[in-house]
Amino acid sequence: LKRYIIILSNREYVLAVLTNGLLYSCLITFTIVGPFIVQSVMHYNAIIFGYIALSVGLFWFIGTMINRFLIHINLRRKTKLCLSVMFIVSIINFIASLYIDMNIYSLVIPTLLISVLGGIIFPNNFARAVSLFPTMSGSANALFGGFIFIMTGITSALSTYLKSTHLTSLAIDYMGLIVMCMLIATIRKYD
Question: Can you give the pTM of this predicted structure?
């Protein structure tokens, strides 16, 4: 119990957990709302949604691989750049949802872009958070994963209240999650 109190009293660790929980919540929101939009509103079958979901996971993985080539870039700079691009994508997605008829591309392209950028940020935050406790890395890892599951569980519960008849609610959700990540990024030390 003492280990967990020490870990949870570290501000940088808690902020990294919150950021990653919010980033992963973008994926969870899509997996909750996406099937209804793809199948019920757009009238595609479940196999098409399966391909889309697989693509989203693949793009997250590609983001983590891209991160390997960007490892020399400062964590603060990389995080702020990725979050800024994610925010721009979410704004464009929101505006497009208001003026453009909903189609598969207006759903998939922003989600893939957000996924690849989230995939760049996630492993950096995870590694940074666990490295803060070299003698308690197992506990820090377990606690980190547990909180990610709790946060995504809350997000998935809240996502069931989103309207799945249009993309605007999904775009607003993406914007909200990304703005929260940006606010956290402004108060983090990254040292």
Answer: 0.91
